Amino acid sequence: MNAVLIAVGVMLILSLLRINVVLSLTVGAIIGGLAGGLNITETIKAFVDGLGGGATIALSYALLGGFALAISRTGIPEVLVKAILKIVQNEGDTQKKGAAKALIFLVLLAMAIMSQNLIPVHIAFIPLIVPPMIKIMNMLQIDRRLIACILTFGLVMPYMFIPAGFGLIYQGIIVDQMALAGLDVALGDVPKAMAIVALGMAVGLVGAFVAYRKPRQYENVELETTNDLNKEVNKLHIIFAAVALVTSIAVQVMTDSMIVGSIAGIIILYITGTLKVKEADAVLSDGMRMMAFVGFVMISANGFSAVINATGDVELLVSGAMDIFNGNVSIAVLIMLIVGLIVTMGIGSSFATIPIIAAIFVPIAMELGLSELAIICLIGTAGVLGDAGSPASDSTLGPTAGLNVDGQHNHIWDTCVPTFLFYNIPQIIFGWIAVVFFL
Asked: Of 42, 162, 320, 343, which one has the greatest count of Cβ atoms within 10 A?
C-alpha cells in the first residue's frame, strides 16, 4: 500500500470516528511515514520540522479571532442581526420567514465570495458575523449544514475561478509551477480552463439547498454574542469599529500579512476607547481561544504534509496508477484527479498541493497529448479537490468555528461530510468532463 493512501486513510477514518482532528493528523502522519520506509526517528523529525510552517498561520488566526471578538463587542453584528430580526418579528408569517432565510443566505454567500477577492480577509468575517446570527438561524430552524455548504462554496469557488485576491495567488501558483515543470501557459487561460469546474460547484450548492431544505431543531443556548441584542448600540463605537475594519483590511492588503492587519485593527480599537483597557485582555484571550482549534489543526496539517513529502510516495502513487491504466487517457485523467483529492484531503491546502502535483502531473499530461487548457484544468482541479471536505482545511474549519459556538455543530459530520459530498463529487465529474472537452 502507498504511504500517502495509508496516511490519509488513517486520518480520515479516525476523524469520522470523532477522534480529535489534530490527533488524527498526527497519528496518520506517523503511520504514513513508517509505511513509506522512514524509521520512527525520521518520521518524527519530518513531522516536527514541518510544524514550523504552520506557526504563522496559527498566530494569524489567533489574532484574527481576538480582533473579531473585539469588533463583535462594538455592536456591528447586533445592528445586522436586529435588521434581520425585524423581518421575522411575526413568527407566524411564513413569507417573512422565507425572506429572512433568503437574506441570511445571500448575506453569508456574498461575504464569503468577497472575502476571497474584493475584501481579501478569507475566513476573518465568519467568527465576526456568524455567531450573532445563530439565534435567528435557530428561530428559523435553518439546517446549519446548509450554512456550512454556503460558506465553503464562497471560500473555494472564487479563488479557483476569479483572478483577483486569493484567486490571483492560486492561479499564479498554477502558472508558475507548470512553468517549472516545463510548460509555459498564460495566466489569463486559467479562468477559462476552470469555468466548467466552477459550474460544477454551483450545481453542488443547488444540491445542498435541496438536501438541507427541511427545518432542523437546535437547542436555544444563550451566547455572549447574542444576549445583548436589546442593549442600545453606541453609534460612535460603530463608526470606530468600521474604521478599524477598513484599516485592518487595508494594512493586510498592503503588507500581505493577516497578523499586521489584525494588530492594526486592534490598535485602532484601543486608541479610540472602543475596546476598554480593563476588558481588552479578557476579550482578546476569548477571541484567540475561539480560533485556537483552527490554528492547531493548521500546524498539524503542515507536519502531516512534511511527512508525506519525505516519503516520496506521491510520485509512486501517480506512476503506479498510470501503469495500471496505461494508454487510456480518460481513465488516466480521472486517476490523477483522485490523487489530487487524496493529497489535498490530507494536507488541507489547495495552494500547497499544486507544487506537489504539478511537477509530476505536467510531464505525464504532456506525454498523454493533452492540450494546454486541458492540463491547466487538470492541475487546477486536482489542486482544489479536497479543500472542501478536508478536516484540515480552513475552508471547513472556518465555518465550523462560527457555527459551533454553542456546541451543536460537529466539524466532521456537519461540515466536512456535507461539503465533501456536494463539492468534491461534482468537481471530479465536471473536472473530468472539462479536461476531456479541452483535449
From this structure: 343
Domain edges within the chain: 3-438
Best CA proximity match to 418, nearest among 408, 429, 428, 426: 426
SS (H, E, C) 134-179: HHHHHHHCCCHHHHHHHHHHHHHHHHHHCCCCHHHHHHHHHHHHHH
- Name the residue with higher pLDDT: 375 or 28: 375
Q: Over 80: is that where the pLDDT of 397 sits?
A: yes
Report CA dihedral (165, 292, 261, 397) to the nearest 10 degrees. 20
Contact present, 273 and 54 (Cβ < 8 Å): no
Report which of 25, 32, 27 is spatially closest to residue 7, judged by C-alpha positions.
Answer: 32
Task: Considering only CA atoms, give the Rg of the chain.
Answer: 22
Cell of 384: 482544489
Q: Could you tell me the pLDDT band of residue 227, with boundaries at 50, 70 and 90?
A: very low
- CB 347 within 8 Å of CB 392: yes
pTM over 0.90: no
